[in-house]
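ok so i was messing around last nite and threw this chain in just to see what happens. nothing serious, just curious
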Amino acid sequence: MALSGAPAIGATHLATKVELTISCENLMDMDVFSKSDPLCALYLNSSGSMWYEFGRTEMILNCLNPKFAKKFVLDYYFEMVQRLKFCVYDIDNNTYDLGDDDFLGELECTLGQIVSNKQMTRSLLLKNGRPAGRGTITICAEEITDNRAAQFEVSARKLDKKYLWWSDPFLEFYKQTERTWQLAHRTEVVHNNLNPVWRPFRVSLRALCGGDVEKPIKVECYDHHINGSHALIGSFKTTLAEMQTGTSTSPAEFECINPKKLKKKDYKNSGVICIRRCELVKEFTFLDFIMGGCQINFTIAIDFTGSNGDPRTRESLHYINPEGYNEYLKAIWAVGNVIQDYDSNKMFPVFGFGAQVPPSWQVSHEFPVNFNPSNPFCAGIEGVVQAYQQCLPQLKLWGPTNFSPVINHVACFARQALRQNVASQYFVLLIITDGVITDMDQTRTAIVEASYLPMSIIIVGVGGADFSAMEFLDSDDKLLRSPFGHVAARDIVQFVPFRQFQGSNVALAQSVLAELPDQLASFFNSYKLKPPNSSDVSAPS
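result:
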């Protein structure tokens, strides 16, 4: 289906889930005083003419030989040609548009080629078809047949100091393959701490050990350096079975050994890694939840602030066009026609914000566009469009642009659903905006709080304004923090600029919704919530 990268909306062919792991070597160095900061973006071509972005890896600072921890999961259709393009960039700024960053090369191929090779290494090419220096990209494919995962809680004690008094440690977990050690997971960096406690994390058994609890796993502990030359503190090899013996009161402990220090007579270790929890859990898929009765509730929020321009003029993004649709209507149609398939009653609450509303003409930031506070629902996307068209002439576009009221509004319902202790409802807020935001601190706080709820936020930017604020909220590289320092539990914001997809509603919808399946599944799995109609009572061991 389209949400997982299928060739067309509503495809019914049987598919196999495939996970892709990406690494590169010998990338071009585009920075003068440091090394390139690479990121790999994956593009799919389902229409034969237009590419759309499926997802991005994390960005790795100062590294010409990156191993990306983030993986891509695609539906593989044996009977179809699925064209893929892997584009590697040196990230130089915080903008969403990769066109602003240095291009390090690309590989265009089919998913079938990758699957048939299992591991494929190819040269990266520039846009003109010439080699991108000596740069190569390696793509490993693995079919997803095992839906178990390992839930970890890990700490360390008495790690070696790499500076005068401290280290900034992080861990990397590797799976043994026929040819090499493949990165399965990388933790966050804990700064200035020789006794770090890392955030709990989850790794699929497929990625960690191929489902074999006795298969060797390598764990490396590094001291993080901003220039990319991370210093090895120590490493050890173990198995999942050994790590499973640890508990919070009696952790499984492993000595971190640095090979360069073994010659020292009094050397014991470079610290101890403590596995305080390693529990096998079953991971339900997005389709498990949807087919098991989980309901996706979509709410639409529309920006009616003055920065959009007077609707009576052609320059306005809200232009009342008697001959066609303005950008807001196009975005509503493009995304709404896909999302309505996952909302069984197709009744959507629709709110506006940033306008003066009759009869009091007070500025409101969460008014129902049908002017019915007790029943803000619109029937299907046609009802949304009709309510928008009837509402617009009655408003005075004003300001400021506050996102937090409507985010908190939806979060209230998501919080109530979470109390049911079953994966019965997931909430998605679609915000369509021209990119100017006023209450950034309150919005950051609202998003961080919502990250702990069954909720995602999709932001579609219309017009050509500065979308740096939206890109900041879409925290793909690091989790969002509130002004008070609270860290989001996960990334729940997906931002897409509408004008990049003019002429292809399918590509827009697929790009906008690309992250939603994983956000939904990962949330419910992390809370150990099962689909309402699930007959599964325990995780397989």
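not much to say yet. Confidence is low (pLDDT under 50) at residues 1-13, 537-541.
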